[in-house]
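Quick log. Single chain, no ligands specified.
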Amino acid sequence: MIVPMIKYSFVLFYKDYEAFLAQLQELGLVDITVSGWEPSEDERRLMTEIDQQRKAMKTLAELRKNELGTRAEAFDSPEEALRHFVEASAEIDRLHAEAAKLQKEIADLEPWGDFSKARIDQLAENGIKLHLFTAFTKEFDLRAEGWKSEFAVEEIARKNGVVYFAIVTGRGGQPVEINATEVKMPERTAQERKADLTDLYQALETERQRLERAAESLDELDEYGKQLREQLDLSRVNTSALRQADGALVVMEGWAPAEAQEKVDAFLADDETAYTTKEEPQAEDEPPVLLKNNRFARAFEFIGGFYSLPRYGTMDLTPFFAPFYMIFFGFCLADAGYGSLYVIAAIIARFKVSKQYQGLVTLAMMCGLSTIFFGLLTGNAFGIQLAEQPLFQPISRYMINSDQLFNVAIGVGVVHILYAMCIKVFGITKRDGFRYALSSLGWLIFLLSGLCGFILPEVGIEGYALGSIPFWITAGIGLCLMFFFNSPGKNPFFNFGLGIWNTYNDVTGLLSDVLSYIRLFALGLSGGILALVFNRLALEMSPDIIIFRQIVMILILAVGQGITLFMASLSAFVHPLRLTFVEFYKNAGFVDGGRPFQPLKKEER
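-> predicted structure:
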């Protein structure tokens, strides 16, 4: 659900403004409206420093985790540690690029061996020139005798199918024109460049030691990052506040959750610097959005965050799509073995990860349990057909085949869409009034009447069939609402024309929406088939040598099942997102555009 907000307006004398903001930050319950904010030069510097601090925390935490090097001496301050991290990181990147360039140069120089550039220059001064060439081995062997009849040819090395050779010419000698690639005379030898590479590695080690020293300031850097973010929040609010009376007064607007109203009011009652008013949000306001759900639905707020927050005053669809997303994930993965791995990983992570990631652990747990259920339903675990195993014979009659799986996918899709339409009717009624929901209600009644007319006779209820009087009555009510109540207060002819247009869009959209759920069937089958293929490869490609056969089999299974798990999990994550954000959100009337509730506050320490 979306937490109700209370609007506060503050008027302060400019000298009291910064102190009041600092007190609001200590309170940590009020979101100050910031509109038209353009960061100043100082704020851009702060943003850059915050970005550098985040990168430093990630890199240095990994460095300290791996315990590289000896215990180093920390820098005197987090600012100094951050500065050294930025400088050392940039220098390490530069040195790595230079090292890669040097290594390539050494590889090019090594075939020419150890030579004296000074001696070659001395020979050139005396009229003896050295020309270096390369040619493919086959080409050189074919033409070498002819070249030697004209020039002094000396083969130097052969490497990777290429011959490196030199031709010596004297004063007044003829120009060297042969079918080979001439190489510019190197300025330095491979050995000399290797010495340069050694010096470069020493410089890299020096920079790594700077990083190790910065890593010893990790806790201080974490605290410094919180201070920077708090400073940016204060500055952002400060620069966007409205100045009145030639800058003597400062006016700003803030929002607080209704459930925290008493705490905010108590704080303002003790404050004597600000004149404050409060009121309920108006239609033209854009309050921030704070979601509050139960433990189950809260885990799926992460999924909804990939799209957008709902606009304030509309419905939060997280509790409504959460169970279906879990079902879709299990449907797509549909492997009891993989689902068990998810559950085991979630149980282990429950005791390993910090509190802020516990929601993701719960999400993984729910999706894993759903995967186990659909894996048992389809009789699949690591590509093994469970129905053929003696242990699962008692429940094999409850398992479904591919034809039944297709029907289940379509059935789940129809239920999902109708469920979304019910939510849309409820949401419009709550937001705008029941009469504005009549058109959507009519479309829902018409679809339900057709669905009941098709299904009920199949289960033995003959009184409500397609073409029966009860069917025509309910379908007629639905059509009437669709065509004449889609725009309350407008001309009936306008409503009728708009109803025809909306019906055309709804019918075509509904068909494509229902067909989208076939992906559940396709993905549910493909993962099991791919796992089955790797199982057969492991059996058929393993040699008959004892012990070696088992080793090869385990390797093929580990790699194959790992690939299958990764690809199937990726599909099981992405495609339910599509069904949620396109099919469900559209039919449920989701209104996006909400901005997150971000109170001015001190970060947790």
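The chain has 19 helices and 13 strands.
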